[in-house]
């Protein structure tokens, strides 16, 4: 596994690692494509040879047809895009609320250990809780409309951002702050011009994690009283034993998830280019 | 992939019998609970393991993945959805003809006096359940359609919550939620009995995985015989039955009695015109299937022949024959 | 600047005991002095500098600048740290202009001054580079420009060249000497390198191991003879003598 | 917010930060305790004054009684400990399987970019997927017994460990490996004596994240055909609108979640004391 | 060791262009030599050392040791890196014993040798400390012991003292000189510090900026005169002359 040429390669990786990861050489791309293809082929063979029940593994063809029909004609009154739109409205509303609340609270907690002490027990308690455990309570409290769904997603997004912000602020070396104050910066200026930009990359990482959490809670959030949304679509499809739609939904969610993460990575590179250079 | 699930049908024990049978059930208040509570399945040649499910959908999935052999008290809707989408099982017993255990409740103070008043209101219902079908039938009978109201897809527990908070104006659901809503300011507008009169009979079944039935017909017959005993007990001593079912649900006899408001079908009546006789059931199912197809919920409604094939009354017939023998 | 009987005690935490970092330090720094401080690691050099900067409050003793007690940070006392704490979210120019910017100085004037000092340290071409795109020496030059742009009365430097390689360090020493000669600022520089102290300072101060006290002070003039890489002063007998003496002091300190 | 004494404190935090976090001064502990108490008091007032319905916010008393009765008499045939036991059996089986598979695969992927290229698309696809989206499929494939539950938890645990392992191996500086080879170590020895211990802290972090993921998927995993398990208990209680049991379950899950994380942190300190010193 | 017409080209990646790091390097190192290499940053010193260690393959040219071509790493050529890459999961003793351990040397003997070398570098008391509990100088001493315990033919050091402060660096230089004198190992040491090179080496090599070539070689003997901190050799006319010459070479190199 490890041989001399490899350890030399690693040497260059240590220096130029970031570049290498961004632009992997062709072979790796080919391999990735090959694996995806192989999975498709195996799926085709398994499902078309009647080796397994169409209910258990729907054929590639039927999933493709479901995908097309959902996209064009829609599923139960909404097209795929509308379903995605409904889900994203919930997700991004919750996500936006979480950013707006968790960032300032997290930054405050990072600055002041008393505030931190006040929030920590709540965060620590809620963070590991499975969303489904408190979903009923949320529905009791906030009703069956979007509020409870957004609240569920909000709770999923909040902790990662809060924790990242608090940790980022605590991490800032005193010299960064001292440099600013000795140059004449006021406390307010130190916060806006030093603490905040210093924490920004970590905050961004927290935000990305939060998005991941929120996304993976999407189906749970659409369990109750939804009539649209990609999560609801998958759930409804399982009510009607529509394996083809379930598979189509999973594929759409998987790809969307990858895309969202990619967008966040791109935004990160744009917005906090000093990440990794602190 | 078949057989990687939990059921042990493949690993035959002695006498060519499986080590155990697995039975899926929904904890409803019905005579089906009697053998569960009273260990009635011990009459069978192998041990029976009863597994609880929250919905008919999960029971059908369990049958499809060969995880269970029987499903008790499966509603007509999940039964139909499962059959039309290719799950392979046979209907072997009618648990009950739904009467008052399902119904449409509205808020007392909402001013809704009639199905037509539901126009534009929010109605809670569980998708793909017989309640869903019942609601749609009620609407159709009133000359309306699903578009005229706002259907809110809720599991029974969520119907409770939504009702509690006033998020919904009405709900089509079943016991115990139905009674719960009734006791919380609800007015029952119509029940399964009313629908049945209009020809929309809803039914709960017992089904068996086809492969299992072919392999162990004797066990299926024994299963039916256990059910026959339960129905007979209800017939002969309903108070005793209420006591047993109540014990299971930790309910009083009176509460149980209130909840057990359907027509439970005895062995003798299984082949009557109300049940399997005269293809009544098969036609019922076909109606549900066609209705669901109209609603765009399922792709293929199949035909009467298909559903007749999904019904296997041979076990009932065998039991009836045995009964006659012993009587003679 | 006048320092009298200064001592500082760090409070202990659960895991570290109370530390007396400085005890009874007396020091007078005149305007235009270039004071170089030498001392073994952990003797309290940085602590002293932080007190002078106003970043730390002394436990005992007084510290005054131009007759006024030092009570907090003040841009009139600029600080250059060992690792140049440039802000990577700002480009080189904005880093240099940070002081004038936060002090609310007129845009135009701030720009002029930032450019002047960028020129002074020879980095005018890199105004729009990010700090992390620069080499260590260039970064320290930016930090120097950033400290100078406020036109402070005093420049406090904590091992500013410690992390640089020998050649770069040489260049930086020449630069700081040049700047000092041109601007006549008061400089207080901490270093580990005896040669650096001897070739830069007008006064040299050696400190004892913890708790830090001043154990040797000397007025020197080698820096004035070191014009344009003429290094002959390094080989003068006084230089060699003083160097040996200080090295010995330090060696004793490190053993003790 | 930022004043001089604080920036000095930070200075000491930068140096001795680790110690300070472990043993925060008393006041912060008091504040945390105060906040927890305040929440309890508000809850008591709200629920006992009849301000809100007992169904919506059960009284502290009834939740306490539910907790006691669940612990002593049990809930539907199993005591609290048995429910926890059933859940933990599933969780830790899945978790163990995830470790056993994800660690070697992750390490391999970190060492060899071709293997990485093969796994990456699968991991990237599955990682963001909401567990509930594919739960129906898992049930269809693996049945209703513990297998499908464990598979769901396994999938939740796998990605974090795999990703952490792959990233840890790639991060190792060439000099660590070069030092070993120039001292005479073989490739195998480099792997066992350098790569593995170097990656261990990051692997551990991945494992902790995985445990968090798994834990928060616990309720979802017990949605179908369970008759025990703390997640099932909460779900069943919501079927019967037993708010007291729901709240009791949430409290138990919250505290258990905190405890598990604490145990992992302790284990981390024991097992990889060189964390943060690489 | 014989190096002939050595050159090395780093392949470009998407973001960095191909780099010719070394070109036409010729060098003969005799047993017992102490070769010190000086050169501007990025000139290829580390690259040369890595080739000699067998960590990199030359693009052109040959490299032989005792008549055999160097094809890969060999414990006979020990390497000490700038940052001591001690393993924090092992204590000091186990770090030192790493070489004998992986080479499968008899337990008892390995233990003896590890202890001997820990004694030699003066760290016998710290055998069970973790590397991260030591100061920078102590760590570098452990790295030295770890390299020596294998009893290598040759010791390759890449700026081993670059990260240390001036006092510690002095102590380490004395230590390495002592060890070299006692064991008569062949040493190849890269440094940025002209004084370090002059006071340690028996031969001094200066390299040009990239692509690295050898532009100056000199046999020197100052190290032999530097017994026990007697530093007078530093002030001999030859020393001063050579120092100036090399500094000038480097200064030119850095500009060019
Ligand atoms: N924030 C702090 N809390 C507690 N003790 C501290 C703190 N900062 C420094 N010390 C201790 O005070 C003493 C003096 O530290 P200081 O940083 O001033 O030394 P120094 O002379 O600058 O050392 P060096 O040359 O290594 O930079 C040291 O023993 C150090 O451990
Ligand atoms: N792995 C690599 N891939 C590509 N280029 C490299 C790699 N390693 C080094 N280089 C380049 O080769 C040249 C020589 O590098 P090397 O590290 O040998 O210089 P050096 O003399 O050791 O410098 P320093 O004094 O800074 O340590 C440099 O220009 C460097 O950018
Ligand atoms: Mg210091
Ligand atoms: Mg180098």
From TrEMBL, chains A, D:
**Is Cell membrane set as a keyword in this record?**
yes
According to its record, what are the GO cellular component terms?
plasma membrane
Membrane topology, as annotated, equals: Multi-pass membrane protein
What's a single GO BP term from this record? alkanesulfonate transmembrane transport
What the entry lists under InterPro entries is as follows:
MetI-like (IPR000515), MetI-like_sf (IPR035906)
Alphabetical UniProt keywords: Cell membrane, Membrane, Transmembrane, Transmembrane helix, Transport
Among the Pfam families in the record, one is: BPD_transp_1
Q: Identify its protein family.
A: Belongs to the binding-protein-dependent transport system permease family.
- Name of the protein this chain belongs to: ABC transporter permease
Name the lineage: Bacteria, Bacillati, Bacillota, Clostridia, Peptostreptococcales
TrEMBL record, chains C, E:
Q: Which GO terms describe its molecular function?
A: ATP binding; ATP hydrolysis activity
The UniProt entry, under InterPro entries, shows:
AAA+_ATPase, ABC_transporter-like_ATP-bd, ABC_transporter-like_CS, ABC_transporter_ATP-bind, P-loop_NTPase
Source domain of life is Bacteria
* Short name of any one Pfam family annotated for the protein: ABC_tran
| Signal peptide start-end | none
Per UniProt, the keywords (alphabetical) are: ATP-binding, Nucleotide-binding, Transport
Residue ranges occupied by any ABC transporter domain in the UniProt entry: 3-236
Among SUPFAM superfamilies, the record links this protein to:
P-loop containing nucleoside triphosphate hydrolases (SSF52540)
PROSITE patterns from the UniProt entry: ABC_TRANSPORTER_1, ABC_TRANSPORTER_2
- What is the name attached to this protein's record? ABC transporter ATP-binding protein
């Amino acid at each position: 596994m490890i041989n001399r040429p490899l350890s030399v390669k690693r040497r260059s990786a240590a220096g130029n690692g970031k570049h290498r990861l961004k632009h992997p050489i062709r072979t790796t791309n080919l391999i990735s494509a090959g694996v995806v293809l192989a999975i498709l082929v195996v799926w085709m063979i398994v499902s078309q040879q009647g080796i397994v029940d169409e209910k258990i593994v729907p054929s590639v063809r039927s999933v493709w047809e479901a995908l097309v029909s959902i996209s064009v004609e829609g599923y139960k009154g909404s097209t795929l895009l509308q379903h995605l739109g409904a889900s994203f409205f919930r997700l991004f509303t919750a996500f936006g609320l979480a950013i707006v609340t968790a960032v300032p609270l997290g930054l405050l907690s990072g600055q002041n250990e008393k505030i931190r002490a006040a929030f920590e027990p709540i965060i620590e308690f809620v963070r590991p809780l499975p969303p489904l455990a408190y979903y009923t309570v949320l529905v009791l409290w906030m009703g069956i409309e979007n509020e409870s769904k957004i609240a569920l997603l909000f709770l999923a997004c909040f902790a990662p951002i809060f924790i990242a912000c608090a940790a980022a602020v605590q991490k800032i070396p005193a010299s960064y702050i001292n440099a600013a104050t000795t140059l004449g910066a006021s406390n307010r200026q130190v916060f806006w011009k030093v603490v905040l930009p210093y924490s920004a990359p970590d905050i961004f990482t927290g935000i990305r994690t939060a998005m991941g959490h929120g996304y993976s809670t999407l189906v749970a959030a659409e369990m109750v009283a939804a009539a649209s949304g990609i999560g609801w679509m998958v759930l409804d499809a399982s009510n009607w034993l529509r394996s083809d739609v379930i598979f189509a939904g999973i594929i759409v969610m998987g790809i969307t998830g990858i895309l969202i993460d990619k967008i966040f990575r791109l935004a990160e590179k744009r917005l906090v280019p000093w990440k990794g250079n602190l | 992939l078949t057989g990687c699930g939990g059921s042990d049908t493949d690993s035959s024990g002695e006498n060519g019998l499986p080590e155990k049978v697995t039975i899926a059930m929904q904890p409803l208040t019905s005579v089906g609970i009697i053998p569960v509570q009273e260990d009635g399945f011990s009459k069978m040649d192998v041990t029976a393991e009863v597994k609880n499910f929250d919905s008919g959908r999960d029971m059908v999935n369990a049958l499809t993945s060969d995880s269970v052999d029987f499903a008790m008290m499966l509603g007509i809707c999940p039964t139909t959805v499962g059959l039309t989408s290719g799950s392979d099982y046979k209907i072997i017993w009618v648990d009950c003809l739904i009467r008052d255990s399902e119904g449409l409740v509205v808020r007392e103070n909402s001013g809704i006096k009639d199905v037509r008043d539901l126009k534009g209101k929010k109605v809670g219902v569980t998708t793909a359940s017989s309640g869903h079908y019942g609601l749609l039938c009620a609407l159709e009978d009133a000359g309306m359609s699903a578009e005229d109201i706002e259907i809110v897809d809720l599991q029974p527990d969520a119907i409770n919550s939504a009702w509690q908070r006033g998020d919904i104006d009405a709900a089509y659901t079943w016991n115990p939620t139905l009674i719960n809503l009734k006791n919380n300011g609800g007015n029952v507008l119509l029940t399964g009995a009313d629908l049945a009169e209009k020809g929309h009979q809803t039914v709960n079944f017992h089904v068996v995985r086809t492969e299992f039935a072919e392999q162990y017909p004797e066990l299926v017959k024994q299963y039916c015989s256990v059910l026959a005993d339960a129905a007979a007990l209800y017939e002969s001593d309903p108070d005793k039955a209420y006591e047993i079912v109540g014990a299971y649900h930790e309910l009083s006899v009176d509460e149980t009695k209130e909840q057990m408001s359907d027509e439970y079908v005895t062995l003798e009546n299984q082949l009557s015109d109300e049940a399997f006789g005269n293809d009544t059931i098969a036609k019922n199912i076909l109606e549900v299937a066609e209705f669901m197809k109209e609603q765009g919920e399922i792709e293929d409604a199949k035909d009467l022949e298909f559903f007749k094939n999904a019904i296997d009354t041979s076990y009932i017939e065998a039991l009836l024959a045995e009964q006659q023998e012993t009587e003679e | 600047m006048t320092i009298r009987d200064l001592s500082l005690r760090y409070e202990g935490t659960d895991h570290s005991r109370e530390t007396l970092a400085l005890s009874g330090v007396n020091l007078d720094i005149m305007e235009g002095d270039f004071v170089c401080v030498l001392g073994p690691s952990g003797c309290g050099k940085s602590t002293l500098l932080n007190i002078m900067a106003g970043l730390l409050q002394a436990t005992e003793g007084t510290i005054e600048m131009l007759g006024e007690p030092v009570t907090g940070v003040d841009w009139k006392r600029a600080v250059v740290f060992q690792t140049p704490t440039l802000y990577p979210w700002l480009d080189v120019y904005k880093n240099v202009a940070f002081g004038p910017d936060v002090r609310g100085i007129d845009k135009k004037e701030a720009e002029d001054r930032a450019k002047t000092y960028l020129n002074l340290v020879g980095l005018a071409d890199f105004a729009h580079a990010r700090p992390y795109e620069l080499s260590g020496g260039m970064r320290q030059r930016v930090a120097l420009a950033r400290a100078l742009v406020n036109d402070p009365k005093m420049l406090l430097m904590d091992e500013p060249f410690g992390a640089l390689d020998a050649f770069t360090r040489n260049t930086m020493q020449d630069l700081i000497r040049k700047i000092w000669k041109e601007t006549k600022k008061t400089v207080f520089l901490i270093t580990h390198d005896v040669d650096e102290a001897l070739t830069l300072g007008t006064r040299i101060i050696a400190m004892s191991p913890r708790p830090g006290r001043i154990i040797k002070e000397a007025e020197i003039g080698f820096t004035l003879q070191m014009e344009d890489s003429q290094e002959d002063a390094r080989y003068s007998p006084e230089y060699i003598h003083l160097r040996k003496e200080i090295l010995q002091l330090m060696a004793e300190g490190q053993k003790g």
